[in-house]
Amino acid sequence: MTPAPWLAFTLHIIQSREGKTMMRTIVLSRGLAMGFSVLASATAMTTAFATQTQPAGDTTPINSSVPLAKSVAIQASDQATLMSANAPVRVNVVLKMHNQSELKQIAEQVRTRARSPLTDNDLAARYLPSHVDAMRVYNFLHANGFNQIYLSKDNMIVTAWGTAANVQSAFKTQLYSLRRDKQAGVANADPVSIPAALSDVIGAVHGLRSFQERGVSGAKVAATTQGNVTWKGKGAPGTQSTTGVVACRECVHAPTDFPALYGASQLAPANAQVVAVIGVGDQRNTNYLYQTWASNYGYGFIPLDVSYPTGYTPGDYEAQTEAVLDVDAVATMSGGLQKIAFYSAPSTNLDDELAAVTAAINDNRSTISLSYAATCDSDIGQDLRNSWDQELWAAVAKGITVFAITQDRGGYPGCSNNQSATGFPGSSPYVVSVGASTLYNTADSYSTYDHETLWPWSESGPAATEPRPYYQDGVANIAGSRRSTPDFVMDGDPNSGLWIVTGGYNSSGTYQTTWAVYGGTSLAAPLLAGTYARLLQSGIPPYFWQQTFYDIGAGQVNHTSGDCLTCYNLLTGGSNGAYSVTPGQFNRASGWGSWNAGALATGMQFQR
């Protein structure tokens, strides 16, 4: 049984103010998660209450405020209701990073191998906010009624649980419960303001516009499966036979097939590596479902370390299947790991996802898999983009690689501008952006690669606001002036997807399990992350490798002597409605295609 996400305790502080002595009781939350902390010493707590104490030398009136974000304009077709005062709300306050341009430049140098990655001490010394600054924000939130407060290890994010009344008190805005077309969530009715005394510290307040900034799982269940699907191996389901003439070419696969299909079986298992998986909600059953799946296929069990960096709601199993798909796919391709570090966010809101990713970055996980994304990156506010970017700069500067999905709604996913679009944060130039393909095996083996086409529901295309990064300059004639996504694809068509074990409670409260087939970009990203772990195990240093990825692709397409000519499986066709695959080259629909892992490991060693 997983313990409750927080335990309350009290701290009594004697504080002298205007010649009077007061007794103040502070209720703190003791976090159980890695990467975030809610513990503070009595000395730190008495330094200042942000809404009560004015910094020395600051002539700004204590109660003055500055606007931080505009209100959400209600449209005629919206369904909007003001939230009640006691409605639960969670905010993620992102602090300002120092010397941002310099850190961004260092991140570029690390990913081009021009310098070594930064250490945690390097980051803290020049770029990260101080613990004192984080405590100023903590104290401000607590003074306004928020009572379950977490500080990220790098002091970049302060997460607080409270109510709409607490938001009104702290940020001077009422909140709507808003539904607009397919979007639903919270929207701020008034401009968001912060105290002027904290304007040097706070960069953004997230969680007040979740209707437009909510991530969606990229997992898709198979509606039908082609071919004769039966059971094989210790009662686990899989394709009909591993020898002779197979039942299908676009086949549902057992996990034992995938490493061979993508050339990863040529590499040693990633036994010394740790892969971080980002999930959502209560994960008390994930270990059981994963062990059931692994034991049925005869896999050795990889330790699964689950943490809740900013708390969770017990009984929130909505994202359980996504969690199992991610863990199973990482295990499938890695062949073995030191452990899988699972960071579970309290919701799919992209600011909550950012807090979970931040915890993984703070714990120096070299490989991170993220299977949640907003469908339309064009709908994401610039403040949230900036918050993701600065945290991802730190990741890249530390040599950490994030694999993020593009999403699963095809070329025209119904964005507010009615344009083709890709998902966010998969559109960031600081992640490896992953789309999905349809995988075909040969006519005589389920585990022998034949070819791939684009899965029609895989999103792709130029990012809404991100300029083309330098590593795409070699394909500028195809990518255009903006960041092109995806960089790569892996199998994501549910009809060529992966068998997993899912579970849930029936009406009588009994927990039941079942076998099911899943795909989507949520299969593709962890497949790639697990493969990358094998590359690291083979001796590839854990850098952010985009430039090398693109150099290898250019060498393969141009048949440059000495470069790897079989590193990537360039797709043979397919379309998502907005973009079509041009066989044999980089393209907006599928990037460089998928990985032939054994050849790629050799190619990356050559690039060094």
TrEMBL record:
Alphabetical keyword list: Calcium, Hydrolase, Metal-binding, Protease, Serine protease, Zymogen
Location of the Peptidase S53 domain: 252-607
Domain of life from the UniProt record: Bacteria
Active site per database record: E322 (charge relay system), D326 (charge relay system), S522 (charge relay system)
BP-aspect Gene Ontology terms: proteolysis
SUPFAM superfamilies: Protease propeptides/inhibitors, Subtilisin-like
Official protein name in the record: Peptidase S53 domain-containing protein
Species assigned in the record: Dyella choica
Pfam families the UniProt entry points to: Peptidase_S8, Pro-kuma_activ
CDD domains associated with the record: Pro-peptidase_S53
This protein's record includes keyword Cell wall biogenesis/degradation: no
GO molecular function, one term: metal ion binding
Cofactor: Ca(2+)
